[in-house]
Specification:
The chain is mostly helical. Among the domains are: 51 residues; 74 residues, Serine Threonine Protein Phosphatase 5, Tetratricopeptide repeat (Alpha Horseshoe), CATH 1.25.40.10; 105 residues, Leucine-rich Repeat Variant. It is built from 24 helices and no strands. It is extended and about 110 Å long. The termini are far apart.
């Protein structure tokens, strides 16, 4: 009904306007009754609907707030999940490496304990831990236990790359099932000495022996040493074996070492082999090791390509980090300007810090429009510690109106132990809150004469 009244009155106004009854009398000083009626009808409807409209606006605003809060909670939950997953991976890696160190030191019981912790986590190294646990049990003379562990590995991880090693170990365990004194088992030291001597022998004669060690049931230290000797051997046959291991022709432990050696020795062929492996694998850890090998080999082009094209955020961040280690200043700066992701830009800023690119960080600290990125640049300048960065922090403090930026500049000068810069800021600061922030830092610098002299000056006022 209200809508009909409003429609009718507005129609009446339109008819009158068309008839010229309003516009035809420019000297008419009173408002036309039809116009007044239309306005009153509109005001009546609007007044009645306004609470509902306002209530709807409130509901929409509340819904937007809920959606924003839900999105933030989802991001926080995803970040916590990533952090927890990374902590689990770090703990798994730490226990696994400790277990291998125990094997190298013949601490078999401790090694088993470490590998049990890895197995319980059911992570990416569980199958490797099962193999090395069986290896340690065999060294202790625990033949049935070792066979049971091998059986678990075979059953639970039928696609494990440790199965070939496990089969060789099983043959060895069964062949000694009559019982052997564990104390007489280890001849690792003699084998290591023999491997050392192979470095000076005829490479072509040494390679079959080294391959036999790599395919056998030796300790991590023995196999790693055999691979090292192989990597030192300057022959195409040795290189072919090394590349085969790097491509996954052995267990993952040896693969990682082979990738490392290909990077250490560099060369066009080695880098090409690494690139081929990188393109054919989906293993994030393998790709990370290859990026590190590219860095060692000085292959900026391939690392930059990964930083620009890699879809996996973890690998992209690793590529950026390696560019920082390589001090690839221009490449990082180009990447920063082209990329739109704040997370990637954060990684680039950290890489600039790693590479010591103070000039670019100063530029970002002064001109970056994103407050979060600018704050990160200022904080990294504080950790770098040089006259150039100190002068920049003093200048940034003086020109910035952002309280967080100014506090970051103060903290940076404090980290640099730059009492002179802080005193300069304190003398010029008129804001009591910021001045207290500066003085609180100076008060902690008790070994600085400049700071203590200023404290006396403050007390004397």
């Amino acid at each position: 009904m209200k809508r009909q009244i409003l429609t009718g009155t507005l129609t009446a106004v339109a008819i009158l306007a068309c008839a010229g009854s309003i516009s035809a009398q420019p000297t008419y000083t009173e408002r036309h009754p039809a116009v007044v009626a239309a306005e009153r009808a509109w005001e009546s409807v609007y007044t009645e609907r306004q609470p509902a409209m306002l209530d709807q606006d409130s509901r929409l605003a509340a819904q937007r707030d809920r959606e924003r809060d839900a999105a933030e909670r989802a991001r926080d939950a995803a970040e916590r999940q990533r952090d927890n997953a990374q902590r689990d991976r770090d703990r798994e890696t730490s226990n696994y490496e400790s277990g291998q160190s125990d094997l190298d030191s013949a601490r078999w019981d401790r090694a088993i304990q470490r590998f049990d912790q890895v197995i319980a986590m059911k992570g990416t190294k569980a199958d490797a831990a099962l193999y090395w646990k069986a290896y340690a049990q065999n060294k202790l003379g625990q033949r049935p236990e070792a066979l049971a562990t091998i059986s678990t590995l075979t059953k639970d991880y039928p696609k494990s790359r440790y199965l070939n090693d496990a089969k060789a170990l099983e043959v060895e365990v069964r062949s000694r099932s009559g019982g052997v004194d564990p104390a007489q088992e280890s001849d690792e030291d003699l084998k290591l000495l023999a491997l050392q001597s192979l470095q000076n022998a005829d490479p072509e004669q040494a390679i079959p022996m080294l391959q036999k060690v790599l395919q056998g049931t030796g300790s991590p230290r023995l196999k790693a040493r055999a691979l090292f000797v192989l990597a030192q051997t300057n022959s195409q046959k040795a290189r072919d074996v090394l590349v085969s291991v790097a491509k996954g022709g052995s267990n993952p432990d040896l693969q990682m070492n082979a990738i490392k050696y290909l990077g250490v020795h560099g060369g066009r062929e080695n880098r090409a082999a690494l690139a081929e492996i990188y393109g054919s694998t989906t293993d994030v850890d393998v790709k990370k090791r290859i990026l590190n090998s590219f860095m060692v080999a000085g292959d900026k082009e391939r690392v930059l390509n990964a930083a620009q094209t890699e879809q996996n955020p973890e690998l992209r961040a690793e590529a950026v980090r390696q560019l920082g280690v390589m001090s690839a200043h221009e490449e990082l700066w180009t990447l920063y300007q082209k990329d739109s992701s704040v997370d990637v830009k954060k990684q680039i800023i950290r890489a600039m810090f790693t590479g010591g690119d103070a000039s670019r960080l100063i530029q970002l600290a002064k001109s970056e429009q994103n407050p979060e990125l600018r704050l990160l640049a200022v904080r990294n300048l504080g950790v770098m510690g040089s006259k150039q960065t100190a002068d920049a922090l003093v200048e940034i403090y003086g020109t910035s109106k952002d309280a967080e930026i100014r506090k970051a500049a103060i903290n940076g000068l404090f980290i640099q132990n730059n009492a002179e810069g802080l005193v300069t800021l304190a003398r010029k600061e008129s804001d009591l809150g910021m001045k207290k922030e500066i003085v609180s830092k100076l008060a902690l610098m008790t070994h600085s004469k400049v700071a203590m002299d200023y404290m006396m000056e403050v007390l004397g006022k």
